[in-house]
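hey can u check if this looks right to u? its 121 residues, i copy pasted from the old doc so theres a chance i mangled smth
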Amino acid sequence: MHTRSVYPNILSYLMKINVLDTIKSELATNISDGTAVFEAIKGYKPSEIEISFVGLKHISTLFLNECIGQYAILNTVNIQKLKFEYPQDNQMFALKVNDVIENALMGDEYDVLVDNALHSM
């Protein structure tokens, strides 16, 4: 699905990546789902896509680290151009996504945190 955005004298198209359609579940909680979303977005620049979390009931940090965190690491310079769409009834999604991006931009410190979390499972 494409979303058309009009700016003064510029017409641009964003590819909308719908997480619900990608993982086929309302619960985005595991690494394999995160990997599926990462595979869907990794070929795009942040300015070219919008990631939609509409229709999801729950997202985990583990899931977000695997898709958004990894994507942020690959796109540190212009990650702020990445657009998101969230469910209207769940403001926590935006907070979680922002936290994951901030942690990913921490670099090596982020890697240690993720490794420790994975080893504690």
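The first helix runs from residue 19 to 23.
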